[in-house]
Amino acid sequence: MNKTALIAAAAFMAVSAAAASTPTVKTIAHRGYWKTEGSAQNSIRALVKADSVGCYASEFDVWLSADSVPVVNHDATFGGVCMQKAPAAECTSVTLPNGEKLPTLAAYLDSAAALPGLRLVLELKEHADRAHERLAVELCVAMIRERGLQQRTDYITFSRAAMLDFIALAPAGSRVYYLNGDMTPQELKDAGAAGLDYSLRTMQRHPEWFGQAKALGLEVNVWTVNDSADMQWCIEQGADYITTNEPELLQSIAGK
Ligand code: MG
User: Fold this and answer.
1) CA distance 141 to 208
2) Per residue in 117-159, pLDDT tens?
3) What's the CA-to-centroid distance between 15 and ligand 1, angstroms?
4) Is the distance from CB of 33 to CB of 58 less than 8 angstroms?
5) 60: CA distance to ligand 1 center in Å?
6) N or C: which end of the chain has fewer CB within 10 A?
7) Homologous superfamily of 23-254 in CATH?
8) What is the pLDDT of residues 200-255, one digit of tens each?
9) Ligand 1 center–CA 123 separation, angstroms
10) Per the confidence metrics, is the pTM higher than 0.85?
11) Residue 6 Cα, ligand 1 centroid: separation in angstroms?
12) Closest CA to 64 of 79, 46, 86
């Protein structure tokens, strides 16, 4: 090899090494970007804020009201209203800390449709009634399809049954991840999931699952990672996504 070729080869190796040592991780705003002025968890404002700072995706939580209307909130009971037991009119009468009314999923998705650069991570909460939960899966999938959001929506859930329903009902190419931490990467692969979306504590207990997932072609999302040292650890382990309440901190560490 002549001198010019040697220099070119060395340069290529340096670039390759830099690429290999700079793993990319994508930022998912947990319940939207709510730790910022005028925002609140699971508000439409938090969705817009996640988009405005260039997050890869924004996560939000869905319950099915007693009269079978999907609404967006994290807590089973919020503002004194039990989401599964109250009609939608009662759920959406609750005022969020930023002054917005608790949104229906329809209103939330209508706002998301106007933010084409943002992926959506729809978490369906585990419902007390299995038939109600199954109906919630059907309605979520239908509402995403009606708005043409299939290509940029991922589904997550703690409910193993709902995960299997999403895998069966969501259109081909949809990505479904499991949250509950009690299935191995191989079990998730066999079930047809796209990957694991596990807590930081779970992944610290099972760091071998990062490599196992990768070997199986699965993706790994870790939640809810708010500390820079923990973010760095996830990145070093090869996490594909980090779900965080501190999206701008993560972006400063990892890029968008
Ligand atoms: Mg959630």
Assistant:
1) 33
2) 999 999 999 999 999 999 999 999 999 999 999 999 999 999 9
3) 38
4) yes
5) 6
6) N
7) Phosphatidylinositol (PI) phosphodiesterase (3.20.20.190)
8) 999 999 999 999 999 999 999 999 999 999 999 999 999 999 999 999 999 999 96
9) 5
10) yes
11) 52
12) 86
